[in-house]
Amino acid sequence: MALPTPFLDRLLGYQLRRASAAMMADLARELADLDMRPAEVTALLVMADHPDCSQSEVGEALSIKRANMVPLVARLMERGLVDRTRADGRSHALRVSAAGEAVVAAARERIARHEARFLARLSPQQHAALLATLPVIRGAGETAPGD
Amino acid sequence: MALPTPFLDRLLGYQLRRASAAMMADLARELADLDMRPAEVTALLVMADHPDCSQSEVGEALSIKRANMVPLVARLMERGLVDRTRADGRSHALRVSAAGEAVVAAARERIARHEARFLARLSPQQHAALLATLPVIRGAGETAPGD
DNA sequence: TATTGTTATACTCTATAACTATA
DNA sequence: TATAGTTATAGAGTATAACAATA
C-alpha cells in the first residue's frame, strides 16, 4: 500500500541508508538488555583488541570525533567496563576491565545473532560481495590499510 | 596509522553503517547550497512523484514517523516549496509548488553528481549487485512490492 | 474504532569552536 | 607548534506517548 519510489530505489546512497537503518535498529534492540548502545559497543570492541590504546586512536578507527569520545568513554568508565591510566601526561591508556570483558563476550554473541538474522536473507556470494564492495564506497577498499 | 579493526570489518552492519555515513555526509555537502537536508529532499522527491499524497503516505514510503513528518513538512511549506490543501478533513493533500519544482530539479542534478562520485569507484557489476542486494537486507527485496 | 495530524519530549549520533595541558 | 583530552553547544534524525478532529 505504500507509495512507490522508483527514483530513490535506484540510488545507492538511499539504499545504503535504508539497509543500514534497518540493521542499526535491530542491533540496538539486540544490545538493549546489556544497556549498551551501538557506538559504545564498537568502541569497547576496539579497546578489547587494542589494550592501552588512546581515546583518539579508538575515535580515529571508528571515525568518531575526539570531542564525542569524551562522554562515550566517561560512560564506559562510570559503569566499570573500562579503566584508564595515564600514558604520557596528555594521553590516556584505555583497558577493558574484567567486568568489561564479560560485556564484550556477551556483545559478540548478540552481534553474531544479529548478523545471522540478516545474512539468512543473502547467499554466501552476496555476503562476500557486500563485504568486498562496501569498504570501497567509503574509500577503505583497495588502497593499503594505513594510507 | 589507524588501529586495525578486523572483527568489525567483517560485520555487514558495520560496513553498511560506515558506507552509508560516508555517502550521507557527501550528500549533505552537495545539498548545502540549496539549504536542504537529505530527509527533506527525499520527502520532496516523493511528493513530486505523487501529487496530492498525504503526509502519512510520504512518511510510510520513507519510514519516517508521522510525528517527525510534521516539522519536516512545515519547513517545506514555510519555504514555499510545498502547498497543502484539505483532502478530507483529517488528511492533507501535498503538492510541490512551482518554486519547489525548481528545487526538485536542482536536487536531482546534485544527487546525480553525488552518486556518480561514488559509482566511479565501483564496476557496473558491483553497482548492479548492490542495488539488487541492499533492498533484501531491509526486507524490501523479493516479496512483491506492497506486501 | 481506526486514522491523520499534531504537540511535547527525549535519545543517539554527529559537528564545530575554543580551551587546557602537555610534547 | 602540534597533540590529547575536554567543554559547551548545536544540528539532524529518530522514538514514544498522548491528544484532537475526523472517518
- Largest interface, and how many residues on either side? A-B, 61 and 61 residues
Instruction: State the total count of DSSP E strands of chain A.
Output: 2
- Biggest sheet descriptor of chain A: 2 strands, antiparallel
Mean pLDDT of chain A: 95
- Spatial extent as radius of gyration of chain A: 18 Å
The helix content of chain A, as a percent range, equals: 55-70%
SSE order of chain A, one letter for each helix or strand: HHHHHEEHH
What features would you describe in this structure?
- Two copies of one chain form a homodimer.
- Chain A has 147 residues and is mainly alpha-helical.
- In chain A, 63% of the residues lie in helices and 7% in strands.
- Chain A contains seven helices and two strands, in the order H-H-H-H-H-E-E-H-H.
- Chain A has helices spanning 6-9, 12-31, 38-49, 55-62, 66-78, 98-119, 124-137, and strands at 82-86, 92-96.
- The first copy, chain A, has a two-stranded antiparallel ribbon.
- In chain A, helix 4 (55-62) packs across helix 5 (66-78).
- The first copy, chain A, is elongated, with a radius of gyration of 18 Å.
- The mean pLDDT of chain A is 95.
- At the A-B interface, helix 1, helix 2, helix 3, helix 4 and helix 6 of A face helix 1, helix 2, helix 3, helix 4 and helix 6 of B.
- Chain A binds a DNA duplex (23 and 23 nucleotides) through helix 2 and helix 5.
In short:
The structure is a homodimer of 147-residue chains. Chain A is mainly alpha-helical.
What's the helix and strand layout?
Two copies of one chain form a homodimer.
Chain A: H1 6-9, H2 12-31, H3 38-49, H4 55-62, H5 66-78, E1 82-86, E2 92-96, H6 98-119, H7 124-137
Antiparallel strand pairs in A: 1-2
Helix pairs in contact in A: 2-6, 3-4, 3-6, 4-5
The structure holds a DNA duplex (23 and 23 nucleotides).
